[in-house]
Amino acid sequence: MPDKSEEKTIKKRKRKARRVHLAGQLMRIFPIRENKIVFNTFEGDGGFCCNPRYIAEELLRRGRKYEMVWLVNDMSREFPPGIRKVKNTFWNRAYHLATARVWISNTRKEYGTAKRKGQLYIQTWHAGIALKPVGKYRGKLFPRIACLVSAYDSGLADLVTSNSDWCTRVYPKMLLYRGRILKTGSPRCDVFYTKREELRKEIRDRYGIPRDARIVMFAPTFRGGGQKGKRQVFAEAPTLDFALLTEALQKRFGGEWHIFLRLHPQLAAQLAGMPMKNKSDRMVDVSQADDINELLAATDVLISDYSSTPFDVINIYMPVFLYADDFAEYVKDRGALMWDIRELPFSLAQTNAELAENIREFDEKTYREKIDAFSKAQGVLEDGHASERVMDYLEEQLSL
Fold this sequence. Notes:
The protein is of the alpha/beta class. The protein is 39% helix and 16% strand. The strands form 2 sheets. Strands 3-2-1-4-5-6-7 form a 7-stranded parallel sheet, sandwiched between helices. α2 (50-62) links the parallel β1 and β2. The protein is globular.
């Protein structure tokens, strides 16, 4: 029997989609500007970050004259010279998307967005290899409205970028996409290969951390995801025992440890920082920083749960430890994970004691061997040149 609440949500979203589409059609009175590129990240909640950021930087580096517009919800976000930030309002979206030659985004376009003949839409997505199920991999837990929005956006896209054979294989079902997929690597990961040493110093100076200190980042993932039209994210105080964590890190790796706390961008837009019961002077909430990849470049160890971030940093052999005390509940709500944890290079802990034990027993040689085997089996391409490959494709399409 159909869920009345869900049906009501779908009807409401379809009415809004018609308004969005009509606005886009009205903006066709303005011509497409051949050198104009519009960017956005995390539906406007992100700032200068993720894959679009590093593609934009490559555009700037090549020195060509583009009109680069970034749609953003928070106008206090900072962007480099050469990129114009624009408030992500209904009419601004309609105008700038209608008049741009190229769209570059890491999340879905608004349901109903109108695309014109001759426009190019590059969907970079915001994750590579993933642990949590997305799209049709969620089975019956995939909300109908999410399916409609996903299918609509994928129907607009001309290209989806991939960082592995695994992504290329699963994206049709995960993203509901049947178009061209180009294996470029992840532009957001280029920074790990090109600026890591520089950022290790810069980030420590920025946050007042001694240059010889070590950093562990705690970055839980997005929770919920549109169940019956209601979007929810992780907002509870984490149960992670930070004192026990740092004690285990010191015992295994030595040194003085500081903690970066990082919310998902769409939750960071709602909260000033991560809810915490106990804080110390060695904790820094970096949730409001635009780009997690800059921070990760300065990080020594990552603690996460179901995020795709661990799959990014293992390519530079960063120790990753999964902590998921809500494992059974999460799988029930979200669906079966994309991987059997035992197939992955990193360990899973469901209690603080297990996490501490996993850290103390960490074996670097074995970990590296597991990463190499995993990356080879999944055809991972991460070498610091992903942004260049995307830009080469873009220039080819624009005949530049």
